[in-house]
Amino acid sequence: MVTSLSLLLWLSGCAHDGQALRDDAHEREWLATSARLYWQGLRWSDVDRAANFIESDLDRAAFRAHLDDQLQQQRVIDATVLQVQISEDPERTKGDPWRTGAVKVRVEGYTLPAQVVQIDDIQQAWYRTPTGWWLTWSPPPLDAP
């Protein structure tokens, strides 16, 4: 009896761990897809597509204005998601993101008017809520008058 109970508990633990691994893999893929869609927006100068990954309406409006300015001077030729990591905060309180993520992206682009191609690896911070994955972004500081 004890061995059957031990086996049952062990198997139920394995099933739970297997589900957690599938959930993590699903979340990583969802984050990777979100990052690819964001970078496709930048690649094609589609400000609205890229801005869809900013959660706050006010921040999204500021993000659009910021991108409009940046895209006057810079172009993205290609972006490749290299690595995706996710984590979950066990100490999370109500209202906190469900998970956080880090995405490493290789970006190929150039600045106008020089048009010299540069390749950079950048790290982005993302966070997960019930509605999806969102890019962590803060408006740049205003220039002093």
How would the blueprint of this fold be written?
Elements: H1 2-43, H2 47-51, H3 57-70, E1 74-88, E2 99-111, E3 118-129, E4 132-135
Antiparallel strand pairs: 1-2, 2-3, 3-4
Notes on the structure:
- With 145 residues, the chain is an alpha+beta fold.
- Helix content is 42%, strand content 30%.
- The protein contains 3 helices and 4 strands.
- It has helices at 2-43, 47-51, 57-70, and strands at residues 74-88, 99-111, 118-129, 132-135.
- The chain has a 4-stranded antiparallel beta sheet, with helices on one face.
- Strand 2 (99-111) and strand 3 (118-129) form a beta hairpin.
- 12% of the residues are buried.
Low-pLDDT stretches = 7-11, 14-21
**Strand element count:** 4
Note the overall shape: globular
Radius of gyration: 20 Å
Overall pLDDT, averaged? Answer: 84
**What's the helix-strand series?**
HHHEEEE
- Helix percentage: 40-55%
Strand neighbour order, sheet with most strands: 1-2-3-4
> Helical element count?
3
Query: How many angstroms separate the termini?
Result: 79 Å
Q: Structural class, judged by helices and strands?
A: alpha+beta
Q: β content, as a range?
A: 25-35%
Biggest sheet, in brief?
4 strands, antiparallel
List keywords for this structure.
145 residues; 4-stranded antiparallel sheet; alpha+beta; globular; 3 helices
Give a quick summary of the entry.
This protein has 145 residues and is an alpha+beta fold.
